[in-house]
Write a structure and sequence with these properties.
- By secondary structure, the chain is an alpha/beta fold.
- The chain folds into four domains: 7-46 and 273-312; 65-266, no CATH class; 315-475, Alpha-Beta Plaits; 500-729, EAL domain (TIM Barrel), CATH 3.20.20.450.
- The chain contains 23 helices and 25 strands.
- The strands form five sheets. An eight-stranded mixed beta barrel has the order 17-18-20-21-22-23-24-25, surrounded by four helices.
- The protein binds ligand C2E and calcium ion (2 copies).
- One calcium ion binds next to loops.
Amino acid sequence: MSFKPGNAETSRRHQLLVPIAAMSFGMLGLLVLLGTFLIVSFDRTASQREQHMVEQGFQRLLEQYQEIIVPQADWDAAVAKLDHEFDPEFADVNFGSQLFTFYGFTRTFFVNGEGKVIYASVEGKHVDNKAFQPFANVTAQLLVPIRKAETERPPIKPDESGESTVTKPIQANGTVRIGDTVYIVIATLIQPDLGLVMPKGPRAPVAITAMPIDRATLHTFASRYLVDDLELVGAGADVMGKAYFRLLCPSGREIAALAWTPRRPGILLLKKLLLPMLGALILLAFGAWVLVRRSGIIVDELILNEKQAKHLAYHDQLTCVPNRTLLFERLPGMLSAIGRETPMLAILCVDLDRFKEVNDTLGHDAGDLVLKTLADRLQALSQDIPGSFVARLGGDEFVLICPVREHPHARDLADRCLERIVKPIDCDYGQIDVGGSIGVALIEDGTVAPSLVLRHADMALYQAKAEGKGQVTFFEPGMAEAFRTRRTLEDNLRAALPRDDFHMVYQPQVDLAGEVSAVEALLRWKHPDLGDISPSVFIPLAEETGLIMAIGEIVMRKVFEETAHWQNVRIAINISAVQMRTPGFATRVMQLATRAGIDPSRYEIELTETALLGDGPATTENFEILRRLGFSIVLDDFGTGYSSLSLLHRFRVDKIKIDQTFVSGVDESTEVNALVGAIVKLARSFDLGVIAEGVETEEQRRHLTLVGCTEFQGFLTGKPAPAGEIAALFESSAILLRQA
Ligand code: C2E
Ligand code: CA
Ligand code: CA
């Protein structure tokens, strides 16, 4: 079986594979995401630390610059030379020139108690006070905390030992931008250190020193704190990938910023590990791909297995058409479509008429070929009818379900179906002609139970077969009743077997002289409630149900037992076609005969033409054995069947029994007389005996005698009667007939 994925399979495949693929690649994605998250947070922490370090570093730088000024400003000599009276020379030597030369403060100013500039030095040289102008604003702002601290300073108590400083430095710092240069500005109050010289008034002069933040400063700072690409940029600068430390003027306005490239250890690590990581990632991705592919193959196998198992469960293995299980799964849906998509549904039960014979005579291969051909023909027909469905119910029974518009449409469909199935089938032996029957149930009510629908079609099929096969029969409500009656009868018949509600009667057969030459054993069934039931009713039923085998044994046992001691009279026993067809039947007869101790040559076996016609190997074998045992063979009901000459030729029968339908017509119709005459002549030419049955009138017997008949059976010469009555008749019969 080839596997072509349909829509259902594709969606099943997706259902199974998508989670596996999602899981594999999702894990991979998660790994990448986790890595990215780690790198980003690693970098963020690093840059936060760096930012903090730069801020702290800058603060430290200011403090260092402030510390440089302290020894010059906190000094008794400075109080004397700058506060008591301002000595520009002292200011030059100890501040302007010294602070520039050794420390790089390019500007030094002094502001007096009134806030007025009293000294200015630029790059170590005493200059005009005008140079102070750009620093006036920042100075004013720095002076505020200085003056506040000055007034809050505890009173100065001189240190007589002249060793330790009695004041704490009072300083303030800030940044200012002048042109393109940013200065760090430090204001320092002139105070005594040992307190040997006291400030002159409440407000001492303040030294204002300024140092530009130049390349060298930045370089030193950058190398101390390991900051990359440190530079001074304008206020408000904000470039992606850069970090900033904003420099504010004392009033809080940004005047410039320190900018640098933040270190990204995460990215750095990533760059270093990129290749091995990429390799690992590719490996993992490959692994995931292999996993998904392998899962795909496994899933495909699973789906295929499932599909095959489903196919096996739902299809007949020999013909590949859907089986009973699938039929019962589909039928409800088709029934519910009645009234919506289709006015009615035709259920066609198809059965071959002679399938068993094909199997018995040509073998099972031929039987299989017949079934396959039938299935193919039905499917070909079904393909032409949208919405139709074919299934094998078992044996040689198939069902075809088709939506139809109206009754004639269904009739036409069934006829076409029959036409197709009865076509001969070519095989190795030549052509097989099986024939078929169809039972049709037309369903207009979608609420009927699926099993009932099929039963109706089956009843119609049964009727078709009972009516002579090879035809189409539609279900009618009466059939259901007949079926029920039949079913009750069957149950009763089964129950009658163990109870032995059967007995035999014997009907005399007389010769030309009126002597009883033979009797025909006839079976009687007396039901405890229903009374006598005719063998014409229950024998066909027994044949259909197989009960005939058990019944046949009862008949033979009783007949052999009751007639074993009869003298000079032959006994005829009716044997059904079903018995003849059963392998081993004749052997069983032999056993019963031996057990009863009877002489087979006194017994006649009555067979109908149909019993010989289905001449499978078993029939022929049984026939031969019975002959060999010494039983005579009578062909019963002659003239009603095929009246085949070849049959007489092939099977060596001893006698033919002219059927009562001819006998009842002999005295009235010359045509019948001629026909019966012909039959007798024919029998004579084959050297066969002839008996006429159903002889009811003397007239009939006279005519039959005229055309050459020598034996008679019928109500005229004796009704069937139990064994005891018959035995008594043997002696008196001749006398009785002579009187008549
Ligand atoms: P059959 O073998 O053709 O038996 C002859 C039937 O014709 C018998 O009916 C018999 O009672 C009836 N008959 C005899 N003389 C006359 C007559 O003058 N006029 C009319 N109208 N009928 C007459 P029965 O006994 O009801 O049997 C019916 C059929 O049942 C038999 O037909 C035979 O086919 C079958 N049958 C009866 N007993 C057995 C049996 O033991 N085994 C088998 N396999 N079939 C049996
Ligand atoms: Ca008979
Ligand atoms: Ca007969």
